[in-house]
Amino acid sequence: MADRFDVVVIGGGPGGYNCAIRLGQLGLSAACIDDRGRFGGTCLNVGCIPSKALLHASELYELARKDFARFGITGSPGLDLPAMMAQKQQAVDQLTRGVEFLFRKNKVEGIVGRAKITAPGRVQVKSQTGILEIFTDHVVIATGSEVTPLPGVKIDEQQIVSSTGALSLKSVPKRLLVVGAGIIGLELGSVWRRLGAEVTVVEFLDRIVPGIDAEVARQFHRLLERQGMRFRLSSKVTGVSKGKVLSVSVESATGGDAAVLDADIVLVAIGRRPYTGNLGLEDIGVKLNARGVVETDEHFRTNIPGVWAIGDVRPGAMLAHKAEDEAIACAERIAGRAGHVNYDAIPSVIYTYPEVAVVGKNEEELKQAGINYKVGKFPFTANPRAKTNLTTEGFVKIIADAASDRVLGVHMLGPDVGNMAGEASLAIEFSASSEDIARTSHAHPTLSEAIRQAAMNVDGWAMQM
Predict the structure, then answer these.
(1) Domain 4-147+273-341 - what CATH class?
(2) Listed residue (326, 349, 374, 358) closest to 424, CA to CA
(3) Residue 96's closest CA among 38, 47, 35?
(4) Domain ranges of the chain
């Protein structure tokens, strides 16, 4: 193994491994270091991929149990949870091995071990075989994030679990209490509700999915309640007493007498925090803010020459594809090219049923900024494909600048809208107007026609409602 590389990337998640691959494509020698034992980071190993496997399988299970008869399909399916978990693990194994193949293809050195920057241009790696000193011109910090703990509640990954433990439960809990009504809590809560758990979600704020367009969030909340998920908003968990059954103390967010809820499993899903400890960053003078986020300029450079940061460790949304976009741009900057990320064009998706997909600004943000805008909406109840598929929940909302008609935001609640978000991102990336979308042909009958009709409706000429 070489002891010198043009660039050393610390972290093997979507930010880290894509950065290393792009560096290899650009002709630079690159090493990617990760201590997990398998590359792919949280996303491939215990995050995006395994959760989507369970979301898909649980959705099929619920569809078969509740809706197949409406399509003329008879029979009652059973649940084989170990087989479902095995299929999830198979997907994880295939994709993590795929990262190793891509490293070989692009001449990237994958190193398993714990990395620490001992000086600018010098990285120490502790592995099972010993200590390796690596010299480099550039170091990219791409170590991602970890679960934010809940004060006073210790996660044991058995009864009190993080997202990691919630992906590997041995049986379906009778009662699951989820702390946090964000993306992770609602997705994993949906998995276990579909498989038979009674799910209660406790959220400190007075609404679910903070940051999402308020109108979308309200209807999303109603749909989840209709499916059987229970919510206690403006509430906080103050403690959990362990026993055969967990006793969870819940009180108003503003304080007061606590109620006690029984649960078999408690899932702590109050967010994630940057993983920047024990990397030697403070020792070499890299600036971190009070939350441990690495401070960088707009080109991912820290205050120390030759040290860069991308993904969850720097400001912005903690999304795998945001990290990937930054990885590409950072690699191109290091190679002397012009890398850039348009953060307004980065989608965010909640993979429940129905899905939520948002790109760009919402109404609340535009009002706060004093920007005049116009809105077009179209319900899936009026979309022929959705009606045929019996998937009519939700709507598409397009927000455009009142003067220029440039698309500022697209907000969708409905079937498969995560796959439709690419069109919205492309429109914002190219500064498209709502009329551009309205006059672009969309195949019929498809769910994506709802985007076109919403764009038409920005100026009041939707033709199918």
Answers:
(1) alpha beta
(2) 358
(3) 38
(4) 4-147+273-341, 160-270, 345-457
Cβ contact 115:125 at 8 Å: yes
Tell me the C-alpha distance between 412 and 139, whole Å: 39
Q: How many CB atoms lie within 10 A of CB 120?
A: 16
Q: pLDDT band for 345, please (50, 70, 90 cuts).
A: very high
Confidence band (pLDDT; 50, 70, 90) for 325?
Answer: very high
Q: Contact, 375 vs 398, CB < 8 A?
A: yes
pLDDT of 1 strictly over 90: no
Distance CA 233, CA 399 (A): 28
Predicted local confidence at residue 256, as pLDDT = 85
User: Are the CB atoms for 148 and 17 separated by under 8 Å?
Assistant: no
From the list 28, 27, 26, 32, the residue with the least C-alpha distance to 12 is 32
How confident is the prediction for the chain on average, in pLDDT? 97
Q: At what angle do helices 81-105 and 14-25 cross, to 10 degrees?
A: 30
The domains spanning 4-147+273-341 and 345-457 adopt the same CATH topology = no
129: pLDDT confidence band, cut at 50, 70 and 90? confident
Parallel/antiparallel/unpaired status of strands 259-263 and 246-252: antiparallel
What are the strands, taking DSSP E only, across 86-168?
108-112, 114-119, 122-127, 130-141, 145-147, 160-161
pLDDT score for 24: 98
The architecture that CATH gives domain 345-457 is 2-Layer Sandwich (3.30)
**Closest C-alpha to 191, from 46, 64, 62:** 62
Nearest to 183 by CA among 246, 255, 269, 82: 269
Encode pLDDT of 357-394 as tens digits: 999 999 999 999 999 999 999 999 999 999 999 999 99
For domain 160-270, the CATH superfamily is FAD/NAD(P)-binding domain (3.50.50.60)
**Tokens 């909406």 — which residue?**
377
Model confidence band, residue 2 (pLDDT cutoffs 50, 70, 90): confident
pLDDT bucket at 257, cuts 50 / 70 / 90: confident
Q: Which pair of structure tokens corresponds to residue 217?
A: 């969030």
Residue range 18-43, pLDDT digits in tens: 999 999 999 999 999 999 999 999 99
What are the residue numbers of the active site?
444
φ and ψ at residue 290, rounded to 5 degrees: -65, -25
CA 1 – CA 129 distance, rounded (Å): 13
Contact 269, 178 (CB under 8 A): yes
CB atoms within 10 A of CB 73: 10
Q: Tell me if 230 sits within 8 A of 200, measured CB to CB.
A: yes
